[in-house]
Amino acid sequence: MDGSPISSTTPDPTWSVRFDLRLDPSRNEERPALYRAALELASRADEKGCSSFILSEHHGADDGYLPSGLTFAAAVGALTARARLNISALILPLHDPIRAAEETLVVDQLSAGRVDVIVGLGYVRSEYAMHGLDPSERVAILEAKLPVYLDALTGKPFSIDGRTVRVTPGPVQQPRPTVLLAASVPAAARRAARLADGVHCLVPRSELEPHYVQERERLGLGRGLVAGGEGSSGSVFVSDDPERAWQELGPYILHEINGYGRWAVENAANQHLYQPTDDLDVARAMGMHVILTPDEAAAQLVAAATSGLMLNPLVGGLPLHMAEPYFAAFVEQALPLARLRQAEYPTRASAAAGDASGSQRG
After folding, report:
1. Has residue 358 got a pLDDT over 50?
2. Could you please report the per-residue DSSP string of 247-268?
3. CA distance 144 to 43
4. What is the mean pLDDT of the chain?
5. In whole angstroms, what is the distance from residue 258 CA to residue 154 CA?
6. Would 292 disulfide with which of 97, 122, 209, 297, CB 3.0-4.6 Å?
7. In this structure, are residues 69 and 38 in contact, taking their beta carbons and an 8 Å threshold?
8. Which whole number is the average pLDDT over 266-274?
């Protein structure tokens, strides 16, 4: 078995691949190769049944963190045919909403309707300064821009500031691509209920879902979408020798942790997830990166059902030749084993999928 999807009455294992394309600036001459490596892995992952690609965005980072998930999504969409393109997140306050809608719709066309967007408020103050914006006004900016972005995505004429606007060519998905709003506090969940198609929880769902649902009910709206907030195992790598893998991947994992950790400290945000450290044992204890054997990964794929696992194959600028064995261990060992187990126990797998659904629409 080669890891390609097989016909079955049970759900195929759910797994995603994340790219942020950060790279230590001392290796800047390797960046074009890193971008090409990401596209190569995306194409191969799509052939093996990847459920979605997670494409992130930050600005002005010393390590060149991907500043345009939408631009990169266009390239991925052109090379793939199956997986969803999850823009996570589009920091909308930093963008012109009409231009962002145009770019989103180009991706929707290139991918034949596979793009989904998670809009984020953003928390890195230096990014707001870079764009000439006051971070203390970010909520007001978001609330002004998000309705414009959503209207523009429909491809239909709408009015703004006394002028009529229509974005073309319009969407493949009808009435437009799905847009969730990221949230980590109740106020943001209520904002998502008012302004977006749903909420993407950045903390346990139980902390936000009641506020989201209550606000939707108060407004007389439908159930909406609730996603994220549970079932995540962090970035997963697969190896027959996890201890050796930790030593090899450690410098790259630490680079990623410290990038987020510095932002967390400087901006007093996400400190429950990341803290700067040079200690690999501390990094392991954070739980944001997990190295599993093929058997362990297969078991988690079956147990996680639709919430799935997330690969981060080029973590911290990991070179492709080093990423290859971990990617291969997943698609050639763990994934076929998970599919075999699902085929042997279809009732159990189907029940798990129903229990672990990551999002809902009413």
Report:
1. no
2. HHHHHHHHHHHHHHHHHHHHHT
3. 37
4. 92
5. 40
6. 297
7. no
8. 83
Compute CA distances 215 → 144, 218, 359, whole Å.
Answer: 19, 5, 18
**18: three-class secondary structure by DSSP:** strand
Q: 242-267 vs 320-328: helix axis angle to the nearest 10?
A: 110
Q: What six digits make up the tokens of 164?
A: 């009529």
- Tokens linked to 253: 């994992």
CA 238, distance to chain mean position in Å, is 20
The confidence score (pLDDT) of residue 353 equals 40
Q: Determine how many CB atoms are found less than 10 A away from the CB of residue 93.
A: 25
Query: What six digits make up the tokens of 68?
Result: 């345009």
Q: How many residues does the chain have?
A: 362
Calculate the CA 89 to chain-centre distance. Answer: 7
H-type helices in the chain, by residue range? 31-47, 69-79, 97-110, 125-130, 138-153, 186-195, 205-218, 242-267, 280-286, 294-304, 320-328, 335-344, 346-355
User: Does the pTM exceed 0.70?
Assistant: yes
pLDDT level of residue 352 (50, 70, 90 thresholds): very low
Backbone phi, then psi, for 138, in 5-degree steps? -65, -35
- Over the stretch 165-178, which tens digit does the pLDDT of each residue have? 999 999 999 999 99
Query: What does the pLDDT read at residue 346?
Result: 62
Looking at the DSSP bridge assignments, the partners of residue 159 are: 164
What letter represents residue 304's amino acid?
A
Strand partners, 18: 54
Please state, in angstroms and rounded to a whole number, the distance separating the CA atoms of residues 323 and 58. Answer: 23
Per-residue CA distances from 255 to 39, 244, 280 (Å): 22, 18, 11
Determine how many CB atoms are found less than 10 A away from the CB of residue 9. 10
Half-sphere exposure of 227 (CA within 13 A, CB side): 24
Going by the DSSP 8-state scheme, the letter that residue 305 receives in this structure is G
Q: How many CB atoms lie within 10 A of CB 165?
A: 15
**pLDDT (tens digit, 9 = 90+) per residue, 324-334?**
999 999 999 99
Of the candidates 304, 334, 287, 121, the residue with the CA atom closest to the CA atom of residue 230: 304
Supply the DSSP symbol for 63. T
- Name the packing angle between helices 186-195 and 205-218 (round to 10°): 40
Backbone φ, ψ for residue 97 (5° rounding): -65, -30
